[in-house]
Amino acid sequence: MKQKLLLLVCFIAGIGFSQAQGLPTNPEPGKCYVKCITKDSFKEVEETIQTYPAYTTLQVIPATYKTVEESVLVKEATKKFVYVPATYENVEVPYVNQEGRTDLKVIPASFGNDSRTFEVHPQTSGWEYKVLEDCPSVNKDDCVAACFVEYPAQSRDVSFTTLSSDASTNAVPVSEKTTTYTKRVIKTPARMDEIQIPAEYKTIKRKVIATPASTTTNTIAAQYQTVTRTVLDKKGGITTWEEVDCELLDPNVLPVFYELGSARLTPASKKTIDETLLPILTDSNVSIEIMSHTDARGNDDFNQSLSQQRANSVVNYLVSKGISRSRLSAKGYGETRLTNRCSNGSDCSEAQHQRNRRTEFRVLSN
């Protein structure tokens, strides 16, 4: 059932106002009161219910058969076509296996001989100086004689070849060559002869239904059982006001501890719950909400899930002590309600992180 905040009044003064609002008639100044819910009352009734429906069983009478003979077609009539190949005869066909041509015969060029005289050096003349061998003077220039000399021209005969007639060709005809090849020609063309093939029949025996299958029916009666069930006898509701410690209405931190990364309660934590929460729930009809928190270290989704599991552990423990689950609510907040600055990535001491790893409770109403 969805939880909501308990209707609460803290009285300091004003009796007339309380009567007008349906509040406690004799409140004490400085006290806090909660309007409590009376439980629904139930009664047991007996009711006969059908535990097994009536039904019909069927018994099958098998079909019977008889044997009959029947002529059946096992191969349909058809026809086949027989191929008669063509016949051939040989004929000789002439053809040119080498065409005629004209060959060319080369007549080489012819040559003659001739000669010619060439002047290879012209006629020259000039002074020539000669030193006398028995010159009495120390200066050789005193014994030089000058002579005017003339040299005749020089010539040479050169032989060479002359072209008498240039190279040419003569045409030489070569006749074509003929032969024959053998060719097979159709004497009678191919044809298809059609042959009829009759149908084939066979006598078979088969079983046919003489009497079809049938059924007989048998009706089985329904089965009943008397059961006792609990039904609502009287609806509960908000009926009375009870005094409650005002400090219980605000979130109160419980020194509840768990194993590392686990939602399992330690023996010391169970003792704290026995001494703190259990007396409040046993001595009154109030409902409470268990709120569990983690520090900011670790994965956000894991912290959210772990805080919910830890809050559930406290509720389950209280239920094991006889407290109705309808009076208890478990809520995990993960790291969404830190009490200090120690969020993701902050440099905090272990003691600062410890203050965020807490379990709280507050008074609620159904």
UniProtKB/TrEMBL annotation:
PROSITE patterns: OMPA_2. It comes from the Bacteria. One of its GO terms (cellular component) is cell outer membrane. It is found in: Cell outer membrane. Gene3D superfamilies: OmpA-like domain. Residues 245-366 form the OmpA-like domain. This is OmpA family protein. InterPro entries: Bact_OuterMem_StrucFunc, OMP_bac, OmpA-like, OmpA-like_sf. Residues 1-20 form the signal peptide.
